[in-house]
Amino acid sequence: MVALARVVARQRAEMDRLRDAAATSAVLERAKGALMATTGCSPDAAHEELLQRAKSGNRTLLEECWLTLGSLVPAELQAAELQAAELQAAGAADTRRPGTVPWEAGATATGDLVDVLGQVGRDLVEVGSAQELAGSLLEHLAPEVGADAVMLYERRHGGGLDLIGHAGLSATLAAQWHHVPPLTGVPPVDALEAGEPRWLEDVVGDPRRDLLIGDPPERWRSRAWLPVPGGDTARVALGVLRRPAGAFAPRERELLRAVARLCAGRLRAFDAPREGADDDTTRNVQSVLDAVPGAAILLTPLRAASGEVEDYRIDAATSEAVDVFGRTGREMVGSHVLESYPSVAGEPLWLGYLDALVTGVPFESEPFAYQDVSEGVPVTATYSVRAAPLGDGLLVTWLRHDPVDRQEQRLSDVQRLGNLGWANWNLVTQEITWSPQTYAVLGRDPALGPVPLERLPELVLPQDAAPLAHAITRLVHRARAFDVPFRVQAPDGVRHLRIVAEAVTEPDGTAADVHGFMQDLTAQRSAELALVESERAMLLQRGVLQAERALAARLQHALLPLPSGPVLLAGLRIEVAYLPAQSGIHVGGDWFSAIQLSDDAALFVVGDVAGHGIGAVATMAQLRFTAKGMVSTGSSLTDALARLNRLLLHSRDSRATATMVLARYDPGTHVLTWAQAGHPPPLLVRGGEVRYLGRPKGMLLGASAHPVFESAQTRLEPGDRLLLYTDGLVERTGEGIDAGFDRLADAVRDHERRSGTLEALLGSMLPEERRDDVCVLDIRMPLDADAGAV
After folding, report:
1. In angstroms, rounded to a whole number, what is the distance separating the alpha carbons of residues 708 and 216?
2. Are 480 and 536 in contact (CB under 8 A)?
3. Degrees (nearest 5) of the Cα angle 338, 343, 346?
4. In this predicted structure, what is the pLDDT of residue 606?
5. What is the distance between the terminal CA atoms of the chain, rounded to a whole angstrom?
6. How many angstroms separate the CA atoms of 596 and 574, rounded?
7. Beta strand residue intervals within 279-428, DSSP E
8. What pLDDT is recorded for position 266?
9. Distance CA 720, CA 702 (A)
10. What b-and-e string marks burial along 204-233, b requiring 16 or more CB atoms within 10 Å of the CB?
11. Predicted local confidence at residue 542, as pLDDT
């Protein structure tokens, strides 16, 4: 019996030893994985680093492993668990082994996090790209925090964010949100700017405050955006999106913070390969492309974990290559194809690229039309593209087809519309060429022929001859380009002209050819002189401030004339109020329209362009008249909003934004159909009850290239009152918009009881000093209206 007891004791001791060895090995592997993920080092280097830390800290290797894993958990949670471990130790001190640390005791929350983080760190070591990283994170975070999608955005040097990895998203949605501009109110941008996580857990309030990714934004009802540490400032944002609503639990928040820290090292580990533009092959190709004329780029395919090509990165480009953002040559290196041309995904051109990669046979496209944007104006041109395999990538060249006669017609139109003409003087052959418009600009008979460059001052007024002669001398002898104004005596009087010229030189610097243009600025100069005289008269009469205010008031009245009183339109009684901001002297971008359409229906429009000043007024006028024209010619309300959105995106100031409400009233059915773009909802008063109409979908104009606009209908009844207004009526500094809506509803309810005027209503609503313009359309249906008409 004694011998048997000894055998059993030895077996138990051996089992305990093996169990402890297995536990130690598992903890060691998790600690190595976490260290490799956070620093990007190799497995051997991670093991050596743990040994060195244990030796310098006079700790065992097991203790050092637990400390390394515990460092990923926030200090406050560690402190709580340390206290719990100490309490446990006080009750069972004789059962603890020497050398154990707090995170080894019990299945506590911290121990749970450490175990999860160890598994995450171990798996992150195996990923080789940001796309694989996102997939690995989703695999771990789905069961831990209920994640349905993961996104990784990287901050661009020029501003904005690029999507570098994603999981749980469709390819279409990823392409649509591949690039995020540097806008405020975008959670991943805000998280990087603040250096703190953004927890989006308010299903109702978040879409009002922030621009949420996805359409509809309710697809993910709770979201978290965390900055991934990296140097002085974070450059990568980790997004975790969940379909269920609800707040992230404290354990979930701490886990996500620790996972973000784990991602930092792994991103550094494969950061250099992802940049991809420093290897010898790419440098050699770029050197060749620098010397090649025409448009050409080197594309490197970006593949998903499955091997599917998701996008292409530009790794080299010729100096003549240009993208839709105006970047040329080497400025394009590092950008992605779908960033500039998202619409090509799945198109024949895209399929041709894939075929060239797979077969190794160059792809040549048929000529196709593509709409570019040049100087903010859409321009349709015809292109041919050729893609030839080069290494693991594609060398892509393209040619733009423009018929010569079309180019000549465009040049002629430009000269005529711009009232300018071109001229060329060959100083070697003495050949002189003027366009017909140059003679018209100078008021010179074409039968007299062109004038040599040195004799050009003989055509101008004597007082302007010397400056022009001096500029010509510097151009001929020093190749100094010039832009000189001068005047000539034409049959119709004195003309104010401008000549701009530059020289083409020989290798020794001698000017060989001079070309330039002449432009008639008489009308512009006359307008400038008239304006100067007008301003001078106003300054003498009322002073600088009064003159500017008077000019602003006149401009506002010209663009937005107000009726002198109520008007009747389609059986409705309409009152209009427009109150400019009282702080400052700038005119604003608020406007309204109330017109009768050709089918006896009525069109009501209220809009607000962001900002003040001439730019806002110009945008306001453009939107106001364009909206009226579109609806008047048969466009639907939603189609008009979509086209106005494109107009803003392609305008000269592509950063301009605006809100708008469009409403069409049919007097036969008394039905009001309306749509909106980021605008406050109309307020309806019926039978003493005041309520806001439910807003159909509609995004701020100018904020997105692919917005969705929907319309809604409301049937007006006799006695109804409908208010369309701009946000200046309800917004106050330091106050939420909901409070402004409540204040307006209370004021209208009280106004109805007193039967006051619109002026009285505005007086009760607005403060003494207004910082924003206010525009209101007060629409009333008379009590005697025929509600049953069809």
Report:
1. 9
2. no
3. 90
4. 95
5. 107
6. 12
7. 295-303, 309-317, 363-364, 368-374, 377-390, 393-401, 420-426
8. 73
9. 33
10. eebeeebbbbbbebeebbbbbbbbbbbeee
11. 65
Q: Is 154 exposed, middle or buried (0-12, 13-18, 19+ CB in 10 A)?
A: buried
Return the pLDDT at 548. 52
Long-range pairs for 745-748: beta carbons < 8 A, 24 or more residues apart? 745/683, 745/690, 745/691, 745/692, 748/683, 748/685, 748/690, 748/723
Q: What size, in residues, is the chain?
A: 790
Q: Is 188 exposed, middle or buried (0-12, 13-18, 19+ CB in 10 A)?
A: buried
pLDDT grade for 575, boundaries at 50, 70 and 90: very high
Taking residues 523-532, report their average pLDDT: 80
Rg (CA), the chain: 36
Rounded to an integer, what distance in angstroms lies between the CA atom of residue 596 and that of residue 569?
7
Say what the pLDDT of residue 757 is: 79
Please tell me the distance from the alpha carbon of residue 192 to that of residue 235, in angstroms, as a whole number.
Answer: 7
What distance in Å separates the CA atoms of residue 62 and residue 59, rounded to the nearest whole number? Answer: 8
Range 368-389 average pLDDT:
71
294: region left, alpha or beta (phi > 0 left; psi from -120 to 50 alpha) = left
pLDDT value of position 231: 57
The answer, yes or no, to whether residue 684 has pLDDT greater than 80, is yes
The SS3 of residue 675 is strand
For residue 306, what is the DSSP state? T
Provide the pLDDT for residue 535. 78
Q: What is the DSSP-derived secondary structure letter of residue 728? A: G
Taking the alpha carbons of 53, 57, 58, 60 in that order, is the dihedral positive or negative? Answer: negative
C-alpha span between 746 and 685 (Å, rounded) = 11
pLDDT one-digit tens code per residue, 542-560: 655 555 555 555 666 676 7
Are the beta carbons of 679 and 662 closer than 8 angstroms? no
- Please give the backbone phi and psi of residue 316, each rounded to the nearest 5 degrees, phi first: -160, 155
Give the whole-angstrom CA distance, residue 404 versus residue 410. Answer: 10
Degrees, nearest 5: CA angle 479-485-486: 110
Let me know: does 436 contact 419? Beta carbons within 8 Å: no
| CA–CA dist 382, 421 (Å, integer) | 28
Residue 97 has pLDDT above 70, yes or no: no
Q: Which of 136, 131, 265, 255 is nearest to 197 (CA)?
A: 255
How much of the chain, in percent, has pLDDT values that exceed 70? Answer: 78
pLDDT tens readout for residues 459-486 = 899 999 999 999 999 988 888 899 999 9
Task: Report whether pLDDT(379) > 90.
Answer: no
Extract long-range pairs of 369-372: CB within 8 Å, 24+ residues apart: 372/324
DSSP 556-579: HHHHSPPPSS-EEETTEEEEEEEE
Question: How high is the pLDDT of residue 667?
Answer: 93
pLDDT, residue 98, reads 35
Query: 143: phi > 0 → left, psi -120 to 50 → alpha, else beta; which?
Result: alpha
Grade residue 707 by pLDDT with cuts at 50, 70 and 90: very high
Over residues 255-306, the pLDDT tens digits come to: 999 899 888 877 776 544 444 434 566 777 887 887 778 888 899 998 876 6
Q: Which residue has the higher pLDDT, 419 or 450?
A: 450
- Which secondary-structure segment (H or E) carries 549? helix 544-559
Residue 272, helix vs strand vs coil: helix
Alpha carbon 655 to its chain centroid, in Å, reads: 9
The angle formed by the CA atoms of residues 647, 648 and 654, to the nearest 5 degrees, is 130
Q: Which of 733, 663, 667 is closest to 698 using CA atoms? A: 663
Of 116, 96, 119, nearest in space to 108 by CA: 116
**Measuring CA to CA, which residue among 704, 639, 706, 642 is closest to residue 673?**
639
C-alpha 2/C-alpha 450 separation (Å) is 127
What does the alpha-carbon distance between residue 74 and residue 241 come to, in Å, rounded to a whole number? 22
Tokens for 199, please give them: 């927890």
Q: How far apart are CA 125 and CA 265, in angstroms?
A: 10
